[in-house]
Design a protein that fits this description.
Blueprint: H1 8-30, H2 39-55, E1 58-59, E2 69-70, E3 76-82, E4 87-90, E5 96-102, E6 108-115, H3 116-122, E7 124-126, E8 131-135, H4 136-149
Parallel strand pairs: 3-5
Antiparallel strand pairs: 1-2, 2-3, 4-8, 5-6, 7-8
Length: 171
């Protein structure tokens, strides 16, 4: 039986995936402390790196249960990055939750940075998946109500502006 030649569409998809995997290999060289594996981990690792860099957080050791980073005063922070989902899933417990929304171009914005307990209380538990989930709508409502109540959030650090790498041209 002869092997068929893939369609142009399939070849284009293969090229895109090859580019993603090549980029992941490069990311592993640039930031080896993160896994950068699988497509789900790629977004999570990106979110953790951006949060740690921009907010001056301290990365928790790999495999730490319930949180990804620490504030300078030792309080724990669980970090989540969202690209297109309508909800955030999480396991464990921390002092604070930081949720970043990532855009197509790699820029990001803070969706929520506040106490973890109200998020846990407003979330829905899935025993089947062994995790909790909260919709982005509820998360935004929590953020708004906390701002209105002027709750004390962790000390904020001015996020760093992350610029794309400069292109170099040979000329």
């Amino acid at each position: 039986m002869s092997k068929t030649v893939p369609s142009e569409k399939v070849q284009a998809i293969q090229h895109v995936l090859a580019s993603i995997f090549a980029s992941q290999r490069t990311l592993k060289v640039l930031a080896p402390e993160f896994k950068w594996s699988g497509l789900g981990n790629l977004l999570g690792d990106f979110g953790e790196l951006m949060a740690i860099e921009a907010y001056g957080l301290i990365r928790a050791p790999s495999g730490t249960d319930g949180h990804d980073a620490l504030l300078p005063d030792g309080r724990t922070v669980q970090i989540k990055a969202n690209f297109a989902a309508s909800q955030i899933g999480f396991r464990g417990n921390a002092d604070f939750l930081l949720v970043l929304s990532v855009a197509n171009d790699g820029t990001w914005a803070e969706l929520y940075f506040g106490p973890f307990a109200p998020v846990l209380a407003a979330s829905r538990r899935s025993e089947r998946d062994n995790k909790n989930a909260i919709t982005l709508t509820k998360l935004k409502q929590l953020k708004l109500s906390q701002e209105q109540m002027q709750l004390s959030a962790p000390t904020r650090f001015t996020p760093l502006e992350v610029l794309p790498p400069e292109s170099t041209s040979v000329g």
